[in-house]
Structure formats: C-alpha cells, structure tokens
C-alpha cells in the first residue's frame, strides 16, 4: 500500500474514534516490526523518524525503506518527520515523500516558535501536508537530544499560537517526558483546559512509560496522536542484549533480527490495542 496523506489519516482517526500511535523507527528491521504490528491489528498510524535520527539515514533512505516494508500491507500509514529541527530537514522530507511533518521550535521564544512554524506551515500546506507544532518544552532524552527544560504548555498561549501558526496538530507538555529515565506525571486538569481552547487535535509525546489507562483518559481530551520511541527500541535491543548475555560467542544475526522484529511487532500490537480499548 502507498503511504497515506497525513490529513487523510487524521480524518480516518476522527471517523473511527481512534488515537493514532506514532512509532519511531531507526532501521529496516524496526520498521518491518512496526509495519507487521499495524497489519496484525488492522489499524493505522504513523511511522516516524526524528531529525536527530536523520543524521544516521537520510530522508530518501527512510522513505524507500518504509515503502519497501509496506509493500504487502493494507492499513493506512503516514510517514512522519518527528521533532523537525530545521527547515532544510522539512524540505528534504517533503521531497522524499513524507506525508506528515512536525516542526519543533519549542526551545525558541514564543514569537520565534510562531515564525518558524508559520514558514513550515506555508511550505507544507502548499504540498497538502499537515504540520504538528510544539508549545511548551518536554523534558528527557529523544535520540541524541537531551532536554533539561520542563516547561508545561501555557493554556493562555494556545489560542494565539494555533491561530497565528495555522498548525494542524498541537504537541503539548503536560508532565509527559521523553525516554525511560524520568517518570511521567500527567496534569489532566491542564490537558482539559488546553483541549477546551485548542481548535486543532492534540499530540502526546513520550508515550513510553505512560500507563495505558492515562493515554485512554487523554484520548477523551481531543488527543489524536501518541508517540512511542524508547519502548520499541528496548524491545529491539533487548533481543540482542539477552542473546549476548547468554552466549558471548553469539553471531547469528539473521535469527536474532527475526526475533527482534517479532518482539517489536508484539509491542506494537499491544500498544495499538491498549490505547484504543473503549
Ligand atoms: O517523539 C517521539 C516520542 O516522543 C518518543 O518518546 O521515547 O518516551 O516513547 P518515548
Ligand atoms: Zn517526542
């Protein structure tokens, strides 16, 4: 199946009442595990790659890899640039066929963040691609990027930010954290307030480690997308780590890669089902 446009995927989520998981990939085997997980559940979502990770593989490689992994599947999937850190990355991803974009300028001042999102929106909308923007800073480790900053989204800024930027999805900071080292502590009253103000659906980063019932609760507050990175990476890396612990002479990379794909698929299936149980 071809990649699905991000706007089409958002409409699919609204029609079916789903929260869409976005799974970060890095390599082919991880991608295959994610795709198989989507296919097994029959539900759609995002395959995402962050700007940091593009230092390892460029957008064209990622796009080709995802297309190839998706050859036999029938569930709707968008290819998403996660934490887009530069306008160059945004342009390269659009050119490579990505169907959804995030611009992350949340480390800048409010006005600078707005300007950066505005020019990304102008560019992406010309190509019919939706844009996710972030307001507030999320603490923790995302690929090789570590942020000490923990600034919750200020609800008083939400309306102006969404209206002036023209973004299509809003990533919020409500006590969610990146990685496995910090404990998430979601502020639901804040989420409710933001949801009542924002004209666009909300996105929760740092899905790994957030109890599923909390994601389901967040779904009642206009949450359309939840991001998972570390969870699948642990499933993937764990396969190799455990095999090496058992046998320091292990070298059967083929069998272990198949096992790792299966572990990722299992986690993907659990996550997709758990966040959408009603
Ligand atoms: O953008 C990606 C996610 O926010 C990943 O966060 O590694 O805590 O699941 P996570
Ligand atoms: Zn994130």
From TrEMBL:
> Which residues does Zn(2+) 1 bind?
83, 178, 205
InterPro entries recorded: Aldolase_TIM (IPR013785), Class_II_FBP_aldolase (IPR050246), FBA_II (IPR000771)
- Name the catalytic site residues: 82
* An example Gene Ontology molecular-function term: zinc ion binding
Q: Name one GO biological process term.
A: carbohydrate metabolic process
Q: How is the cofactor bound?
A: Binds 2 Zn(2+) ions per subunit. One is catalytic and the other provides a structural contribution.
- Keyword Cell membrane set for record: no
Name of protein:
Ketose-bisphosphate aldolase
Protein source organism: Enterococcus durans
Q: Which gene encodes it?
A: fbaA_2
